[in-house]
């Protein structure tokens, strides 16, 4: 177990979507570490959730815009004294590679999965509580019970590979944004902290780090101009209350 916990708050819808996709990819990865029926149910559920995310916005265009924005910002550093040119060139090459992969993908993200009749049936029933029971989806039950677990894992992995270009782009974008600035020590007086943001800077993500040993957690809210952090006492049996003493924490306001 880590000695610290990091809480993240996106400051725009694009980063909010990227974080949701990152979470879903981690869910699939974790599910595919096992080979039971429930592992593969969870993997499929996470992938079908991804399809829903892709349908809510033109994610491919959003990713391409973000990579182009990051490339422009990094390219502006090429003539800055002290910059590691070799490392910078490697980052720019990786960004170009991710952008090319998105350009090459002519069909919609996840279109192959969307057109698969087997997955379509599961997706139709997934919105109903308990809707993927064996009596609702006998074909799904047959696949889970009849197919060899190794073959099921391979099939799930082949479906997941449909998202490789998106996954690589999301991971690199978030890695660069998170790494754009380090953590600084801060104190929230009476459990409350507020800071204004320079609207001319491309702030995209607020990160709050606390020791794993404390009994409070941060509630972060914010927008383009300012953000607030409230530290709440954790109690599983009642509504959390704001701390009434100074709270030391570490803060990172990521702008890239």
Give the secondary structure arrangement, pairings included.
Layout: E1 4-10, H1 13-31, H2 37-56, H3 59-75, H4 85-104, H5 111-114, H6 117-126, H7 138-146, H8 149-160, H9 164-178, E2 184-188, E3 192-196, E4 203-211, E5 216-222, E6 226-233, E7 241-242, E8 247-255
Antiparallel strand pairs: 1-4, 2-8, 3-6, 4-8, 5-6, 6-7
Helix pairs in contact: 1-2, 1-9, 2-8, 3-4, 3-9, 4-9
Q: Can you describe this structure in just a few lines?
A:
It contains nine helices and eight strands.
Keyword list:
256 residues, alpha+beta, 4-stranded antiparallel β-sheet, 9 helices, 20% strand, globular
Verbal overview:
Helix 2 (37-56) runs parallel beside helix 8 (149-160), helix 3 packs antiparallel against helix 4 and helix 4 runs antiparallel to helix 9 (164-178). With 256 residues, this protein is of the alpha+beta class. The mean pLDDT is 90. It has helices at residues 13-31, 37-56, 59-75, 85-104, 111-114, 117-126, 138-146, 149-160, 164-178; strands spanning 4-10, 184-188, 192-196, 203-211, 216-222, 226-233, 241-242, 247-255. The radius of gyration is 22 Å and the shape is globular. Strand 6 and strand 7 form a beta hairpin.
Order of neighbouring strands in the sheet with most strands:
1-4-8-2
Q: Secondary-structure element order, as H and E? A: EHHHHHHHHHEEEEEEE
Distance between the termini: 30 Å
Radius of gyration, rounded? 22 Å
- Derived from helix and strand composition plus strand pairing, the structural class reads alpha+beta
Mean pLDDT across every amino acid position: 90
Task: Report strand %.
Answer: 15-25%
- Amount of helix: 40-55%
Q: What's the total number of strands?
A: 8
Regions with little confidence, pLDDT below 50 for 5+ residues: none
Helix tally?
9
Shape: globular
Which sheet architecture does the biggest sheet show?
4 strands, antiparallel
